Amino acid sequence: MSQVLIVGFDIISLVAFTAALVGVLLIPFDHYGSYSKIVRLFLALAIAVYVFAGVSNILEHAGITAALDPYEDYGEIFFVPFVAYALFTMNTALRENEIRRSSELVRAEHELLNTIVETNPSGIMLVAASGEIAFANDRAKALLGISSDEAAGTLRLPADFICTSTVSASIRPLDLGLLATGESFDSALCVIEANGQRAALAVSASPLALSEGGRQGSVVAFVDVTEREQARQDLLDAQARYSLDLEHTVDERTVDLFALNRELDRANQAKQEFLARANHELRTPLSAIAGFAGALLSEEPGPVNAEQRAQIGMMKESSEQLLALVNGLLDIGRVESGLAVVEPVETDLTVLLTDIADLVRPLAGGRGVSLTLAVAPEMVLQTDPDLLGQIVRNLLSNAIKFTDAGGTVTLSASVDRGVVRIAVTDTGIGIEADEQEHIFEPFIQLASAQSGRPKGSGLGLAICRDLAAALGGSVDLVSGVGAGSTFTVELPLENVGEQA
Amino acid sequence: MLQPSEVVGLVIAVILLPIIITTSRTIWSPLRRLMLAATGSIIAGNAFTIIEGFVLFDLFNTLEHAAYAVAGIFVFAALLSLRRAPVLSGGAR
Question: Which of A209-223, A267-281, A384-398 holds the top average pLDDT?
Fold first, then answer.
């Protein structure tokens, strides 16, 4: 039974090894390159050993012959060595292939790096720990004038090479001794002189890898910034020249302005003198005309008929208007020239406004306008009562003039958050929005307000504005067509108080 | 009966086995495993043929031949696996 089993195993062994032998002979071993034949040979020999052993065992256990048995025993010794050789050769082929591929990769990277370095617009060089230039690309050679010493196999800087930092004379970015120590810096500016040429360079350096003995020199990169630095210097020079020119121009203009200002002062003074003289010369005859017209109207010199009365009345009214205009011109001229001297005194605002209201009430009554007063009692203000009174009288006069009979004009005063407000409010015709912008300008007569109303000089509001400014305040207007107007005089509270 | 060639064969196989294992590490894994299995079977067969000279002749003789048959199958399978390997370990071509 065991013999049959053994023969069965031998047949299986023979078939398997024979098939493997055929496989070894047919399968390409291209994976192993030049070693493929050796691999194939050793595998074929190892397998052939057991093909032979299979044949020998079948013959022996089938009882045919045992003549091959001694050769089989010796042959079997070689199976493992053949397999070992085959595997070792495979391993060698793989290792060799790895080395070849690595070498190709290193060579490709080296070529790439070399191309980058040689085509780089920056100068690049390698300074060894000994202070010698171990490498320099073409750009570095051209910029620094580096020459090759063929005999010594080294690179050298020109004998007259000078490198001076633009920051400090003690810094020499391209000093080989400094670079040999592995100094590190970034974009250090320096001016070099080599072979009679000058150039500005921005130099960067990084130390090489550390070794047991310390730093191993530096990798140095530099770019030519001569044009940039020249442009920067030109710009600085231009700025300096421009500043000098500008200062010179300003000085000239200042002298011109001083001269012009003096001329303006003289012209203004002459204008004021002329105005004062002309007004004085005008007021006297105008007053005489108004006075004699009044006397004629009173019929003291003799009776006048109705036609004469009407004409004399027009003459008197015109002379009064002309006198008001002259007075207005005097006032505005005085304010503009700074001759309106503000003399602040402790002023009882309540009394002042009450007196003014009493003064203009007959005028209001004559036009059928009701004048009301809404002022808190005993308000005391440190201001010039004459100037303030003139402002309020002008505003009240305007309000009465432009309010129809049956209307109301209200004079009020209040103190709120540091400001005293004196308001003149009427129920008159109001002012259009586009006219409000120009209402405080001199000689402005609103076209919409002229029909059937006394003609003014056009200076009242301008005088109010200037006088309010002289008192440290302002005049504002809120108005709407058909809704009346409110002129508000605002004065700072610091001079305002209430009596205890 | 114990023969010197069988002992020599086993000794050589045992000595070379560590070398085979270490040098085959870069080889494609299926091929390597099958070749090592085949080598192990052969070494086992060598061991059985020595043992059969001392005890249980029939059993170990049968095991010896069975080991060779198994080794044959492993070698054949290893070569088949080699055909499936597009590129062997290590990138060899």
Answer: A384-398
Tell me the average pLDDT of chain A.
Answer: 84
What the block records as the tokens of A382 is 């440190």
The partner residue sitting opposite A6, judged by closest CB among B65, B90, B91, is B65
The answer to whether A2 contacts B89, with C-beta atoms less than 8 Å apart, is no
For A78, nearest residue in chain B (alpha carbons): B9
Is residue A464 within 8 Å of residue A475, measured between CB atoms? Answer: yes
Sign of CA dihedral A247, A252, A255, A257: negative
Model confidence over A53-87: pLDDT tens digits?
888 888 888 788 888 888 888 888 888 899 889 88
Residue-range definition of the domain harbouring residue A187: 121-224
* Contacts A93 to B, Cβ<8 Å: 92
Of B16, B32, B73, the CB nearest to A16: B73
Query: Does A381 share its domain with A487?
Result: yes
Tell me which residue in B24, B68, B71 faces A87 most closely, judged by beta carbons. B24
Strands (E), A74-196: 123-127, 133-136, 147-149, 154-156, 162-165, 185-194
CATH code of the domain containing A475: 3.30.565.10
Establish if A198 touches chain B: CB-CB under 8 angstroms: no
Residues A143 and A103 occupy one common structural domain: no
Which CATH number goes with the domain that contains A203?
Answer: 3.30.450.20
Contacts of B26 in chain A (CB under 8 A): 90-91, 94-95
Contact residues, A window 89-128, toward B, CB-based 8 Å cutoff:
90-91, 93-95, 97-98, 101
Is the ipTM value over 0.85, yes or no?
Answer: yes
CA distance A351 to A291: 32
CA–CA separation, A200 and A191 (whole Å):
4
For A227, counting Cβ atoms within 10 Å of its Cβ (0-12 exposed, 13-18 middle, 19+ buried), the class is: exposed
Per-residue model confidence as pLDDT tens digits over A197-231: 888 889 999 888 765 566 678 899 999 998 988 89
Residues A99 and A182 in one domain: no
- Residues of B whose CB is below 8 A from A91: 23-27
Provide the number of structural domains found in chain A: 3
